[in-house]
Each structure stands twice: as structure tokens, then as C-alpha cells.
Amino acid sequence: QVQLVESGGGLAQAGGSLRLTCTSSQNTFRVNAMGWFRQAPGKQRELVAAMNTEGRRKYADAVKGRFTISRDNAKNTVYLQMNSLKPEDTAVYYCNSKFKRLEYWGQGTQVTVSS
After folding, report:
1. 56 near 49, Cβ under 8 Å?
2. Per-residue model confidence as pLDDT tens for the chain (115 residues)
3. Which of 39, 49, 87, 107 is in the most buried spot, having the most CB atoms within 10 Å?
4. Cα 51 to Cα 55: distance, rounded to the nearest angstrom
5. Concatenated DSSP letters for 66-114?
6. Residues near 87 by beta carbon (within 8 Å), at least 6 away in sequence
């Protein structure tokens, strides 16, 4: 039973920063690709950032240059550093972990950015 626990969401002002943290209960975390998704009210869930086991990263165009995904396999943890936040970043953010056809999701954490 793999569980992902997220933290770090909350309120921020435009131009500010937040760091999201996701910790997995899986002790073989290193074999999983990791990602962050978000879903705003009335919109489809979208990929924000992802990182594979080789350290390769990809980002949504809307967050390039502002967000950074990283992982610490020794701690079974993935991070999302969010800088230069915009009101458009307001959404529920979800941690995702994937190994082949196995996929796990966190419960989601609310990020709200005020103008």
C-alpha cells in the first residue's frame, strides 16, 4: 500500500514563493518517475512538472523558468519549488508517482496566489 503525503501548500502573494513536498511510503522510490499535476476549478488536471529516474525534467510552458522539480531518493521525497507565483497558479496540486503501469497519487494540496 503506497501512500504519497504532500505538504507546503497554502497562501502566497503574487511574486512570492512556495515549496511543495511529497514523501512516499515506498522504499523503492528510486525506480519511480515523479511528477506534479494541478487542477484549477472548472479546468482539466494538467501536468506541471515531471522528473524521471535519470534526472531528466520537463515542465508545462506556463511554469518554465519559475518552477523547479527535484527529488531526493534517499528520503523518498520529491519537491516542487515555485517562484514568481502568479494568480493563475492557483489550483490544487497533486503529487504523482509512476513505475511502468503502476501509478499513485497524493491527496492534493491547495495553492492560492493572491494579487
Report:
1. no
2. 789 999 999 999 999 999 999 999 988 778 889 999 999 999 999 999 999 999 999 999 999 999 999 999 899 999 999 999 999 999 999 999 998 889 999 999 999 999 9
3. 49
4. 6
5. TEEEEEEGGGTEEEEEE-S--GGG-EEEEEEEEETTEEEE---EEEEEE
6. 14, 113, 114, 115
